[in-house]
Amino acid sequence: MDSCLMVWHMKPQSRAYRFTGHKDAVTCVNFSPSGHLLASGSRDKTVRLWVPNVKGESTSFRAHTATVRSVHFCSDGQSFVTASDDKTVKVWSTHRQKFLFSLSQHINWVRCAKFSPDGRLIVSASDDKTVKLWDKSSRECVHSYCEHGGFVTYVDFHPSGTCIAAAGMDNTVKVWDVRTHRLLQHYQLHSAAVNALSFHPSGSYLITASSDSTLKILDLMEGRLLYTLHGHQGPATTVAFSRTGEYFASGGSDEQVMVWKSNFDVVDHGEVMKVPRPPATLASSAGNLPEVDFPVPSGRGRSVESVQSQPQEPVSMPQTLTSTLEHIVGQLDVLTQTVSILEQRLTLTEDKLKQCLENQQLIMQRTTP
């Protein structure tokens, strides 16, 4: 592995930028939301912030006492988070390049750390076989997910911020709800370690990269495998969707970076739910469960505001019954979304079939003497 960064332009005939500065292998890169900064981490234990232009100017600072495995900007670009083999997760100020605080409950190397879309939470994945969810403001570990049977190699937030997905050396991908901490989906489709994953911006799909040399695209709404992609001649080590979801790129130990076109229909789930989902209220420690706010389906009963404006005498209910009812409401919500999305997909399929029949009829008319 060399110690350089390559920034590629997608426009034809454009030249790539080659940045040098790190003293050892570069392990991770991430663009800021604005695209005006590029952060990189390295085995040389440093993080560099680059201005991605011809000059390739950068600022370097000693971030950790061991290899930096992950770097990720917050959605506002004001801070970024790093993860390291020194077993810590650290948060930094972008413009001052100043250390803010450290999260240090992992007991083995931390492979990955990411901000939630709203910047309130941080999730980290470690060789201690756990995924940890952190509250940024309180700096407390909200919950530890311990279902993986091996090192956890990668973790990321769903675009909605309500779920996380993690990849592991146990060949699995798991999806959890960050509000209830329930395991929602479990996939064991690869024959070797899963090294990376990426959510499509729509939230409908998840792509994974594995040491079995394949990429797999999963339909999260239907909970099934859509495609298996073969291209790399060795382990596929990383994969990521573009910000629009039109493309995705993968890298492997064969020293190849491949850019793929997504080529699948996307249903915007934001259009399905007309009532916005309120943010979950997180507990301050891992020992307390968070409050979970479920949306009120449109057209069913009174509005949230009208219910809240009329004070009612509290009714005492057993905690187990309350939890069960909340879970049922949540599942009904998911079913409602799923049915709506399936209806949209059916409409798309019917439109395509109609277009195919019309095209076939035109061809027959042209060929008929």
From TrEMBL:
WD repeats lie at residues 19-50, 61-102, 103-144, 145-186, 187-228, 229-261. SUPFAM superfamilies: WD40 repeat-like. It is found in: Cytoplasm, Cytoskeleton, Cilium basal body; Cytoplasm, Cytoskeleton, Microtubule organizing center, Centrosome, Centriole; Cytoplasm, Cytoskeleton, Spindle pole. Its main location: cytoplasm. Transmembrane segments: none annotated. The keyword Coiled coil applies. Coiled coil: none annotated. One of its GO terms (biological process) is positive regulation of centrosome duplication. Keywords: Coiled coil, Repeat, WD repeat. Gene3D superfamilies: YVTN repeat-like/Quinoprotein amine dehydrogenase. Residues 297-317 are annotated as: Disordered. Pfam families: WD40. GO terms for cellular component: centriole; centrosome; ciliary basal body; cytoplasm; spindle pole. Residues 305-317 have a biased composition (Polar residues). Belongs to the WD repeat POC1 family. This is POC1 centriolar protein homolog A.
